[in-house]
Amino acid sequence: MDFTPLLALDKLKVMPLEEIKLTKDKWNRPITYSPDTKGALQAIEDLRYEMHNPYNDGFTGSIMKRRLVQIKETVEKALVDAPTYSDE
């Protein structure tokens, strides 16, 4: 069974290739993909709500918890080698 959380990607904005102006410096290129933070936070909140919902049985609650743990582990894995920025 796949417990991959479904994140809201309906607000994903992708720039058409015609609008991207290639330059010699790759850092001046526009961001063509920007993850939807609001959608991810909403998915986490929805899972938390359903996990604690008294109308759900223990099986459903345990699935919600496993999905939250999967998100937590994925975030921790992504931050292992994250650089330190000046505003931290």
Describe the structure.
This protein has a domain at 35-79. The protein starts with 36 loop residues before the first helix and ends in a 9-residue tail after the last helix. It has two helices and no strands. The protein has 88 residues and is mainly alpha-helical. α1 runs antiparallel to α2 (58-79). Mean pLDDT is 78; it is low at 1-12. The longest helix has 22 residues, at 58-79. Helices cover 43% and strands 0% of the residues.
List keywords for this structure.
mainly alpha, 2 helices
Short description:
This protein is mainly α and 88 residues long. The protein has two helices and no strands.
List the helices and strands and how they pair.
Blueprint: H1 37-52, H2 58-79
Helix pairs in contact: 1-2
Largest sheet: none
Assess the beta-strand content as a share of residues. Answer: under 5%
Principal-axes shape call:
elongated
Q: Stretches where pLDDT falls below 50 for ≥5 residues?
A: 1-12
Q: What's the tally of helices?
A: 2
The averaged pLDDT comes out at 78
What is the alpha-carbon Rg in Å? 18 Å
Give the % helix. 40-55%
Order of helices and strands: HH
- Measured between the Cα atoms of the first and last residue, the distance is 39 Å
Q: Structural class from helices and strands?
A: mainly alpha
Note the quaternary state here: single chain
Number of strands: 0
